[in-house]
Amino acid sequence: MESRIDRIKKQLHSASYKLTPQREATVAVLLEHEEDHLSAEDVYLLVKEKAPEIGLATVYRTLELLTELKIVDKINFGDGVSRYDLRQEGAAHFHHHLVCVECGAVDEIQEDLLEDVEAIVEKRWNFIIQDHRLTFHGICWRCHDKNDDTTEKQE
């Protein structure tokens, strides 16, 4: 984790920002909870455990800065809550998500599934794509398996 923080520190420095203790605490929380798709409030509560003096506004500003610098991606899964997701190092694009409409679980797809689609869009509409996001809404394997188990027991 320290080497990742060092690389993020370099990204901040190259954009003329410093890795303040508050920013470092925020980045550490995002790294520790990389799979969780945390809201700003979630991040704030976790950062508060590490740095009790930090305020919610500071966490919001830090998340917005990290979003501007493409260190994190701000995402919304249709529930009205913005969540923050660390961008994979070296990734050309944002990763894709599978959102379960039953339990709310969010799974990630790291593989870029849209290369062919991008080529078509760029050529046909003369549009230069900088990034894309793809979210599938459906029933996750956990709920699907649970529903299958329930059906088998009823039969």
TrEMBL record:
<dbReference type="InterPro" id="IPR036390">
    <property type="entry name" value="WH_DNA-bd_sf"/>
</dbReference>
<keyword id="KW-0862">Zinc</keyword>
<comment type="similarity">
    <text>Belongs to the Fur family.</text>
</comment>
<dbReference type="InterPro" id="IPR002481">
    <property type="entry name" value="FUR"/>
</dbReference>
<dbReference type="InterPro" id="IPR043135">
    <property type="entry name" value="Fur_C"/>
</dbReference>
<dbReference type="Pfam" id="PF01475">
    <property type="entry name" value="FUR"/>
</dbReference>
<keyword id="KW-0804">Transcription</keyword>
<dbReference type="InterPro" id="IPR036388">
    <property type="entry name" value="WH-like_DNA-bd_sf"/>
</dbReference>
<keyword id="KW-0805">Transcription regulation</keyword>
<protein>
    <submittedName>
        <fullName>Ferric uptake regulation protein</fullName>
    </submittedName>
</protein>
<keyword id="KW-0678">Repressor</keyword>
<keyword id="KW-0238">DNA-binding</keyword>
